[in-house]
Amino acid sequence: MDSLFTPSSIAVVGASAVSGKIGNTILTNLQSAGYKGELFPVNSRGGTIGGLKVYKSISEIDHPVDLAVIAVPRDAVLCALNDLIKIGVRSVAVLSAGFREVGRDGWLLEKQISELAEKNSIYLLGPNCLGFINTSAGINASFASGTPLTGTTAFFSQSGALCVAVIDWALANGVGFSKFVSLGNKSVINESSMIEYLGNDPETKVILGYVENITDGRNFMAQAVKVSMKKPIIMMKSGTTAAGARAASSHTGAISGSDQACDAAFHQAGIIRVDRLEELFKLANAFSCQELPLGPNLGIITNAGGPGILAADACGESSLRMPSFSLSTIAELQPMLPGYASIYNPVDLLREADAARYCKAIKLIGLDPLINSVLVIVSPSDKMNLTEVAETIAACASEISKPVFCCLMGRKNSEAARSIFSEAGVPVYDFPKQAVRAMDSMYKYAIWKGRASRTFETPDRDYDAAKEIIDSALRSGRSELVEFQARDIVTAYGLPSPDSDLARSGDEAATLAKRLGFPVVLKIASPDIPYKSDVNGVWLNLNTEEEVRNAFWKITAEAQRLKPDAYIAGCLVQQMASKDAREIIIGFRRDDQFGPLLMFGLGGVYVEVLKDISYRLAPLSVEDAAEMVREIRSYMLLKGVRGGEPADFDAITDVLIRMSCLADDFPEIYEAEFNPVLVSSDEALVADAHMTIVKLSSGSKESGLNIDDDLSKEA
Amino acid sequence: MDSLFTPSSIAVVGASAVSGKIGNTILTNLQSAGYKGELFPVNSRGGTIGGLKVYKSISEIDHPVDLAVIAVPRDAVLCALNDLIKIGVRSVAVLSAGFREVGRDGWLLEKQISELAEKNSIYLLGPNCLGFINTSAGINASFASGTPLTGTTAFFSQSGALCVAVIDWALANGVGFSKFVSLGNKSVINESSMIEYLGNDPETKVILGYVENITDGRNFMAQAVKVSMKKPIIMMKSGTTAAGARAASSHTGAISGSDQACDAAFHQAGIIRVDRLEELFKLANAFSCQELPLGPNLGIITNAGGPGILAADACGESSLRMPSFSLSTIAELQPMLPGYASIYNPVDLLREADAARYCKAIKLIGLDPLINSVLVIVSPSDKMNLTEVAETIAACASEISKPVFCCLMGRKNSEAARSIFSEAGVPVYDFPKQAVRAMDSMYKYAIWKGRASRTFETPDRDYDAAKEIIDSALRSGRSELVEFQARDIVTAYGLPSPDSDLARSGDEAATLAKRLGFPVVLKIASPDIPYKSDVNGVWLNLNTEEEVRNAFWKITAEAQRLKPDAYIAGCLVQQMASKDAREIIIGFRRDDQFGPLLMFGLGGVYVEVLKDISYRLAPLSVEDAAEMVREIRSYMLLKGVRGGEPADFDAITDVLIRMSCLADDFPEIYEAEFNPVLVSSDEALVADAHMTIVKLSSGSKESGLNIDDDLSKEA
């Protein structure tokens, strides 16, 4: 993508001499930002603009063109792109609007353009975007007003309005960017390609992004997980609530995946997710100038009680800890402060604290082996020489190899001090909570980066057997696999179930029950009855042959009465769970953007009422599976409370991994649920299973539905 | 307190001619803020300061003095206060530090001062405070640098450092205040007296406060609940986490109550609680210039998709709703926008929106009967005449009787527009989420204000019987009432328990069991064994006389073996719960600051593992009790899931109200727990009860321990 971001020549198609027109602003921005390469304005009227010769047509340009910025009316874009391809352009930014966002005809046009670009290996930004800015190369190929400063943070955004607001905000706050990219409709270049490119961009230390949907979830995760290991990716995804998703889809026509899937994707890919725009930049500030902390232990230095308490509160809500200082630190703090000053954590240097006192405290606490990062709070008093204090803190911070953050209370007369901190690379915040939240994010990212590498295991399974069951069901036009069909897939995937067999008559059921051992469960077996409880089709705890025989007739009769058209295969006779077994639910649903989303929770009310569920995307590593189990609030119930035996942890994760494998093997399975899985201290038995299957159309992708297919059906 | 806030004469004790000294800053601030009354500087050196005659001693002042500001060294404060009393001063602000916050001797001195002030009915602010500012009267009796503008918001703060930061921030943002008060150590005037005063202050429309602890929780709630009905109180309380509470107590020596108690108090008193300082002012802005919305339905108007989605997301996370507009509104929106613009909620006026389009949309949506409040998002574009748009929005907003908020994306060149909004009383925010959160707070406050008045019922109970049991236990030196003692109190308070009686032998147990009806429960009965499970002292589901006899001997033998010194009274024989009964836990704990804190939750793992508990402070109204039950996450389990019968709601609230009454009747009960209470569809039986009792010292207050007593013990 270097031809896009560092082109040696740029054509501006639709250049204009009329101030206020996009084709004029672009040219002005390119010139005023100091672009050093060749510029070729194109406009059928010819003449000159801003001292540059205007080409009457693209074909007239007799030099190689790396990048073309297109700002012509929508209906002229395709033609322009064709002409640009003929002169060998390598990348284009389409600023013109009126595509996918305005409905079907725009969408069709956009599709033609993106296909043409892709066929000719052209990097295409937009359409319907503001363009981009590469500060270090002096390129402002956007119609935003104003060029931000140079910095080490890259920002990309799907929303043009947010680009404008962010540039405004950055100019007002002196914040700089390495690259600034408006993605627009993302018809070729999207968040995945941006992350891949910025991951290799030496000028970018931190990647920020705002998106409303993710174009190709699987590829996005693959790129992000690689880049996250090198540099932090901080992103905001909107459309997270039902209301927001509705607004998002009516805005860009983009289908938003579920928020659980997006959360799982960000988590698994090490992306730091924020839910406020403000926070995006507060975190960027922290990540871009400080090293990651090596542990959770935060030392707080303050000269006022209130802000110290606020910082401690914020710490208590975070994953950071606030240990006592080591004894030797306390021993050295004691003589430098009055007896009533708190010398524990936070240490209160008192209102009269001067530069020397801050210096001593920072060095002591910064070198304390029990402390991993330091927050210095300054509450300016009239007597304080704020500049001197800021210089001292900055100097001391540079001598310490741990992250040091500053919170400067109050904005008045503090600009000089803030500049001192900024120049020294000490992130400075207005309020303690902002500082602590930034430090917390850095610590969490450090944990993610330092985590053990993921282990992916491919379990033994009989793929062909499962395939045969699914294909045969699809051939007979079924969209549901009920228990007595699904359990063969469960078995093919190496998962144990309670001993069970299909009985076709009451006598057969009684014989089977005797063989399996009492007590047993009887369950209706019918491909036409996916929800057995609808027909009262599950009888538990049957203790005698007589009871079993009786139950068989009652169950099948009731099912026949309630579902007269259903084919009733008989009843499944199954061993009862052992008394100490706990019920868990393991399932997956195919997310439109990210593919199979696995879910885990305790059975019954824990999932249904308390929504105590953990989510991860397939393929599941061994570590992901273990995290899923530990992450639910009710995990203690599996570990065993009040002397109960712990559930078989490995058996649970094994079910998770095998289900993940099943989900990846068969795009035909749209969703599946093992409910309940009965877990005791030494096994996990899949006691019931249910799957929804779909016939794959030849062209459809594994990740499920996609918008193009949908729209083309309408055509 | 008018003598404090609108004094006709002020003495400054410790006035100084030396610039930078507090005694000089105070005088300068008083003069420069334009104080019109008489000023009497006092300093033993005499002379003049700032053109004013300096009195050599307090006794020399030959005019009546309303207020004295004391800025002398700590050890001279008591003497000065004595002298001031002699000349009839009515209120004082003690700026001097060195009291409670520096330890025991400072604390003793502070106690003398506050007692002297209280004896002489003097309103004393501080000590260890910055003073106060009353903008409308032109009084800046503080040593803060700078006087904020006049406004309708009052602010008080326990932390001086936050006062300084807030003044700074307010000056930078053009925010005004009616009163601005630094409470310091709160030895006489505290948050309760401030709320009472500000509740009656016609210049104050919104009350903001920051506190680290609440001095007298019961009085605080009583004042706040009255004032909340008239004007909003928005408060931040720090020290909410364990880490923060530790920092708070080491800072001011203030004991912080539990955060659950504080949350319950704020909720019951209608106080809007925030957890970020920024939010305090963002909310104040909303409350001070807009009416409360009459319902949850928010209409969003935007000219850019991204910010609209962000607003919709924020709405989805709030208690607000985003309904579709009415059909007639949609019909009128349609012709004014291109076909591809979203005309649902949020309505997208598109990038080219001008003042006229905004005006039409605001009027349409503002008059839509389905909509209760309107958020207008403006994302400035180069072509937009922002000033005209702002003026139009402000004018349209004034024609609509519903609250209208604005979100203006980006700060650059927007100052003029922001001023237009501010002057028109339209709250303006930088980001959609901030605006929606403010609107959400207003809606929640409107619900609180409009709620049905609380009904307090005093249940019938046998106070004397309960009193006798408690007194007798205290006389015999016990601090625990175990089940077989506590159940008599339960009965005295009119609460049903399962039929049960004490058996002293196995035969007696068997006879009792026969009378009660099988199955029964046997429980160890010993005043020395508060936790029966420690000795395996509860046997459930005993079905025959033989089993009961056998259980009796095993239980008592095991108890004797494990607790050889315990007095074993025998076993309690109790009816088993009915099969469909659900276990709930109802209890209370006496909070140091707020008195009895009642808790409610489902038994077992719901309380212990999932911490699914609701809290309220006694006395409990009927409505509070109902809210407590509905508020837990697992409430659905009581309502009945999967066809289960609903639990007897009234019976549960009856137990809650009777426990609340018990807590208020007997300050001797430090904590109590009914666990389990067995609830079926027609009753709630207290199956086990446990109470911790304490002997009340003659002087101790109902709300439990207090710091003064503690410290005096050390003396």
TrEMBL record, chains A, B:
> Which residue ranges does the record assign to the ATP-grasp domain?
487-523
Tell me yes or no: is Ligase among this UniProt entry's keywords.
yes
Gene Ontology MF terms in the entry: acetate-CoA ligase (ADP-forming) activity; ATP binding; metal ion binding; transferase activity
- The reply to whether Nucleotide-binding figures as a keyword in the UniProt entry is yes
**Where do transmembrane segments lie in this chain?**
none
**Which InterPro entries does the UniProt record give?**
Acyl-CoA_Synth/Transferase (IPR051538), ATP-grasp (IPR011761), ATP_grasp_subdomain_1 (IPR013815), CoA-bd (IPR003781), Ligase_CoA_dom (IPR043938), NAD(P)-bd_dom_sf (IPR036291), Succ_CoA_lig_flav_dom (IPR032875), Succinyl-CoA_synth-like (IPR016102)
Q: Which UniProt keywords apply?
A: ATP-binding, Ligase, Nucleotide-binding, Transferase
State the source organism's domain of life: Bacteria
PROSITE patterns referenced in this protein's UniProt entry, alphabetically: ATP_GRASP (PS50975)
Q: Which family does it belong to?
A: In the N-terminal section; belongs to the acetate CoA ligase alpha subunit family.
User: Under which name does UniProt file this protein?
Assistant: Acetyltransferase
The species is Desulfovibrio gilichinskyi
Its taxonomic path starts at: Bacteria, Pseudomonadati, Thermodesulfobacteriota, Desulfovibrionia, Desulfovibrionales
